[in-house]
Design brief:
Elements lengths: L1 H19 L7 E6 L2 E3 L2 E5 L4 E7 L5 E5 L4 E5 L4 E6 L5 E7 L7 E7 L6
Parallel strand pairs: 1-4, 3-9
Antiparallel strand pairs: 1-2, 4-7, 5-6, 5-8, 8-9
Length: 117
């Protein structure tokens, strides 16, 4: 019986880090259309992990890139990617579509959430 308890405990503890590190279930959605991000600014809570889903409606590939977030990933034409990001300190973080940096630009604003007293 003690071996079963230890095995169960290890199974539960092994699942905790994956659950705790899992970003929010609903991703923030960005759409690439006509080589522009829509919306081109998103606001997220500071200090929390989140997901960004990038859907490319253009007929050419694009590379989602952010030096601020230290991320870059190619989105195929008509494709979709999901990125896990954060937690971020309060501030503004820039991102671009590297293949069309003149038009595909945007920002993420990580905002502090008001504390309840």
């Amino acid at each position: 019986m003690p071996r079963l308890n230890v095995a169960l405990l290890l199974l539960v503890l092994g699942a905790l880090p994956a659950y705790a590190a899992d970003p929010a279930a609903d991703p923030v959605r960005l759409t690439l259309k006509d080589h522009r991000f829509v919306p081109d600014q998103i606001t997220v809570p500071a200090g929390e992990r989140f997901k960004i889903e990038v859907v490319n409606e253009d007929d050419t590939p694009e590379e989602f890139e952010s030096h601020d977030l230290k991320v870059e990933k190619i989105v195929t034409a008509g494709g979709k990617i999901t990125l896990s990001v954060g937690p971020l300190k309060p501030g503004t973080y820039r991102f671009v579509g590297e293949y069309h940096e003149d038009t595909a630009t945007g920002t993420i604003v990580a905002a502090e959430t008001p504390t309840k007293e």
